[in-house]
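Appendix B. Chain record.
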Amino acid sequence: MIAGRWPRAASRRLPLYALQFVLVAVLAVLAAAWEPSYDRSATRALAQEVEQAAADGPLVTVRSGLRPPATDDGASVAPKFGTLENDLARLAEGLRHGAGPGLTAVLGAPTARIETGVVPLLGDGVRRPDGTVPTAQLVYAQDAGRELRWTSGRAPGTPAGDPAAAPVEVAVSAANADVLGLTPGRPVTLRGPGLETAAVVVGVFTPVTETADLWQQFPALARPLVNDTAQGRRTAVEFLTGAAGIEAVEARGSAGPAGLALTLGYPVRVDPAGDAGAAGRAGELGREAVAFVQGAAVGVCGDRTLATLPCGLDLRRVSPPQVTERLSAVVSAFERRSSRTQALRSFALAGLLTVAVIGALAAARLAVRREAADLELRRARGAGLAGLAGRGLLTGAPAVLAGAVAGWCTGVAAGGGAVPSGAPGRAVAAAVLLAVLLVWCAPPGTVWARYREPRRGTAVRRQRSPLARRLVRDATVLLVAAAGVVSLRLRGGSVAAFDPQLFLLPGLLGAAAVTVLWWLYPLPVRLLARWARRRTGAVPLVALARAGREAPAAGAAVLVLVLALSGAVLGGLVSDSVRHGRERAAAWRTGADAVVIGPAGLDSASAELAALPGVARTAAVTAASRDLLAPDGELLRSAVLVRVDPAALLAAVPESRLGRALRAADLGGSGQTGSTESVTAGGAGSGAAGDPGAVPTVDVLSDAVVPDGTLEVVDGGRTVLRLRITGALPAAARQDPVLGPVLGELPTGGPLLVAAGGPRPDGPTARTAVLLRTAGGAAPPDAERLRRTAADAVRAAAPAVAAGGVLRLQVRGRAAETERLRGDGLVRALDTTWLVCGLGALLVALLVVAVDLLAGARERGGTAAVLRTLGLGGRAAAAIHLLELLPLVVAAAAGGTALGLLLPAALGPALDLADLTGAPPGAGPSVDWALTAALGCGLVVMVLAVAVLEAVIGRRRRPAAVLRLGEAR
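Structure tokens predicted for this chain:
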């Protein structure tokens, strides 16, 4: 008889088995695809960031001195032509031996550049600009061929004859040729300490683009530089030569005792299709880049004890290589963003896992309640509790195994065939496995908990009242949730990629929200019931009475709905915040429609940039990080001093809050407004009231409080500038995007001081940003034209700035920055995760509601029969069931929406998205109210639609329409 009843009992669990299959399949998909899918997105993001950083120059640079071949006693040996390239290749191979495997995989073939010393340039017909002898040096660059085009002549080659006597073949740029009067075939002589050789010009070239790294490292290759010396203004140029020219210089023994200056620039490229951005591997790449700084010399010399001495290659020797790298800083910033992304993804996953487990427990309770009569009959006939629980495990195993296999295969296919192998993947797999076990064990566990008997001999304790038990339970839930939130906020913004505390918060906060919801729920229901009593119809009154009575039994289903909706609302909030964060980040990086960023003297190019087609207005913002001396003797480290003309700023950026604050403050100074002089160790600018010896004083606004309101800029042991604080800098002005281009790379931590005039802030950290406002919303000029125009203006108006060597200019456009940020792989991975987890949680919640409706179909049918017997029609009975469900669904929608909106405030720094978007500090989350309202209303509509669908499908399973005389429900 038991065997005959089992299939019927098992058939009642088909909805439960279907729910288990779906839950396990979804969880298995996540476990298999979680890490591989993220690794692909993270690697693409890392590749993009490395490519962007490499646009400003090589990320790994090796500098050394190349010494000519010599005998053991130091006598110079004239090399043969064609030996330099082999020695450079041997040096590059030795350097690779000092790099780790991860760094070796991303390092490309290095580009060698060799330069001689600077010596006077002599020769018949060589012009002398400004009446002084020009200076020149020879430069050999392996990558020069792709950075120039020949206008006449040819590239330097290998001369015929003895390397020690043949003239060095050189090429000159068209700009240098015009200034010096050089043409192909013109012989010249370079003669001075460290270099003495005859040379012949064989070609004239023009740069393809003057923004390439070659012309940034050797600006005098493209055009002459004018330096102010004690003897007057002197013109400096650089000649391009080939490998044979360097070999000829070595053969003459004129390279000097220190040898030739050698620079190897390593291009760094991360394969977007690889796994360099995977968790742990990116950090290892950064550590290998740092270790390469110490291990490069060992890789070349072969022994750490010899790494401080010149090392032999084949014929030549090199001084110990000195490595500078920027790769570790790029990787470190990427790691912070990646860790934040994975923490937020794990929070979304935790919400889905919690919904799945609670949904499985709710469905199991409903299924056990539905077959309570059958289970009690089995217990009465002697069936053991362990046997019933074991039978539940066995009957549920096929659905669980089928879901696990189907989900795992789908997840592996979605992950590109990769299997999780890293620590985050293993952590997610462990969490998912635990959730699967809970889903599988939920039905037998519910049977065990419901029918287990207390042990004999257990002392009978006085039972608490239901209200006391509820108070203790709810207080415990609220205290645990509050403790979790407080503990997370006390930690600040530091979160791990897979944070257990962050992982447990969704369930705790959901339970706390439902606890509060159940305390508030009776009040509106009673008010509605009071309203219904005054109505003539019985449908609202009966529905509301049943809604109040049946609410405690639906606690698990409401909890699932609250968690699912809160996760969806939070996902929409995160997505909207990231989208707005991208826009704020693009505005912070550009400050206006476009910006040109360079050294402090770039403000001299404002007029030339404003004259370009499409540019309506320009404004220059200059900033420098300086240590300031307070009146009490305290040294304020890393203070940032900014100078800007408020009138020009408001003309270029009318919405600038900084410009409005400066205009309202009406700042003045001691005769310094508009001065373009710099605050340097050599001079403090013009003195007040025409006194050259006086220290200038400038009025500033500050975001820090200084007791006496006066600070001093000290350089070389003496005060070069006084800053008089005349007002407070508003917080809104502190976050004005116009400051972003100059503050983005400056050290922070000290006060920010803004002046409307006075000497230009100067120093090693000084930066100037020329903000460009386009005419009528038109596109700004192309980056190459902006760089060329700015560089020409700086070299013409500020020769001292250009004569310093490298003149690196950055050009950013707001539209291009927004597009670049929109394609960030980490942000896309986060959006995809929230979308998948949010939709998955809503799907699970609807399935739980469907199972709840199926489990209560018999009871609702009996109620309908009673109501029909009492004279109500079929439509009225159906309306009662829908109205009975409506208060619970509306309460769940309200609680889920409120929880989703409160989560950012509860999580605090743990939900900071600034690392992901690059937005300025203080940019809080933004809420899309239309999406939030749509999610809440959509949940109500979907649940009611599921109820209507279940009513239509289950009409045939309902009992008789009315009860006969003497028949019970």
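Further analysis of this model is presented in Appendix C.
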